[in-house]
Amino acid sequence: MIEIEACTEQEPPLPKDIPCADGTSAFGGLYPSLRAFREHVFPGVTESRWNDWRWQIANRVLDVDTVEKVLGYSRAGSMPLGKGLPMAVTPYYLGVAAVAGSTALRRCIEPTIHEFVMDPSEAEDPLGEEGHTAVPGIVHRYPDRVLFLVTDYCSTYCRYCTRSRLVGKGGRRHDTRKWKRGIEYIRANPAVRDVLLSGGDPLTMPDDRLDWLLTELRTIPHVEIIRIGSKVPAVLPQRITPELTAMLRKHHPLFISLHFAHPDELTAQTVRACAMLADAGIPLGSQTVLLKGVNDEVETMKRLMHGLLKARVRPYYLYQCDPIPGSAHFRTRVEKGLEIIQGLRGHTSGYAVPSYVIDAPGGGGKIPLLPEYYVGRDKGNVLLRNYEGRLFTYPDPEPSAVITGAALTENAQ
Ligand SMILES: *Cc1c(COP(=O)(O)O)cnc(C)c1O
Questions:
Q1: Per-residue pLDDT averaged across 162-177, rounded?
Q2: Does residue 5 belong to any structural domain of this protein?
Q3: Does the annotation flag 154 for ligand binding?
Q4: Would residue 298 count as lying in a domain?
Q5: How many domains, the chain?
């Protein structure tokens, strides 16, 4: 293992006495703006330091106490973290949560006692990724594409992370030998035409490492498209620099799947980061996990999807929350997801409607779910239900009932 970039920042992360938010702001949130948040919670940090993604990474907030001081004590004291997923949040994203003031973003980042409540149906590796691991870091579940886990590091850890068993264990480093084995695996498997880089968050890596990896993958003739999965534009938009986009655009066709949870994440800075990626010719999709108390209402989800489209991001997947250990407080009933899809389809642009999927426990892959628009068949018609719930028929005769051209000719004779 090699350390790819030592964080040399010496600045203390936070002053000893964080001015506590009192939660009585007239703005709805705790601060009127991110700037007010920065000046209050990180006094002395200039705007240019704040906008340096390396500063954001070096100054991540890593303890629950600080989150509670900043966002207000809403729970009975701080909670000791278990051995599982560590806590980390960028100063920027903590600021977004503070400015928004709602509990939605807070739920995504703050560990709570609920994480210790284990349900027997939950599992460390609910998607059976280990069973489909071809070589370390390569999950090969579908015939023509692989998931390539290139780092276990994220700038901010989502409490519902599907890979909570893996991420945040090794710091900001990767194992080059493991990368090379992964690349060799892909090179040796001509059926792999689509490589999905994930982790961890690949966009937390320095430009030159990512460039090296993409360049290697581009030497493989059968790799048609490369995708990157990332939450960086939402939690660390400062990372999207002109240098990064100039590097990425060398590796087309390149797609990026962004992770968004809530419309409050769509700040001006995040929208600008998406615009820079889109201007580099990168098609952007979004992935959203359906989360209780965060986005489990049609109106919230609609606002998120509309906001994403305005940011030139096409909603791609809505995921039922994976049953990782201690995630019951995040899971909604599946009917909730169906209700949300039903509340979107027909009521708004088709582009705003993601596919609702369950990644089947045990390694079944993503299975799409749709509200029942296909009602059934009545002899030569199929019965369909439209978005308003009204029934329609579509003529779809049995093959034997179709009058063919030949039959017509016979009748004429
Ligand atoms: C989600 C996933 C993919 C990509 O699936 P698409 O439906 O093509 O986006 C590929 N491999 C694994 C293991 C996955 O979990």
A1: 86
A2: no
A3: yes
A4: yes
A5: 3
The CA-to-CA distance between both ends of the chain, in Å, stands at 83
Q: Which of 69, 92, 93, 154 is catalytic?
A: 154
CB neighbour class for 406 (10 Å; exposed up to 12, middle 13-18, buried from 19): exposed
Average pLDDT (23-32) is 70
Give the residue numbers spanning the domain of 172.
130-369
Torsion angle of C-alpha atoms 86, 359, 151, 220, degrees rounded to 10: 180
Same domain, 222 and 364: yes
The residue annotated as part of the active site, out of 69, 107, 145, 231, is 145
Query: Taking a C-beta distance cutoff of 8 angstroms, is the pair 341, 302 a contact?
Result: no
Across the chain, what does the average pLDDT equal?
Answer: 90
- In order of 140, 181, 213, 362, 365, the CA distances from 210 in angstroms are 21, 16, 5, 31, 27
> Distance from the CA of 233 to the center of ligand 1, in angstroms?
21
Strands 225-230, 194-198: pairing is parallel
Please provide residue 146's backbone torsions phi and psi, each rounded to the nearest 5 degrees. -130, 155
In the annotation, is 154 catalytic?
Answer: yes
- Give domain status of residue 339, yes or no: yes
pLDDT digits (tens, 9 = 90+) for 28-85: 789 999 999 999 999 999 999 999 999 999 999 999 999 999 998 765 444 556 668 9
pTM, two decimals, is 0.91
Q: Is 138 in the pocket of ligand 1 (CB under 6 A)?
A: no
CA distances in angstroms from 259 to 308, 351, 355, listed in the order given: 11, 17, 14
- For this structure, is 274 an active site residue? no
> Do 144 and 277 lie in a common domain?
yes
**What token pair was written down for 318?**
């809505």
Q: How many residues does the chain have?
A: 413
Give domain status of residue 351, yes or no: yes
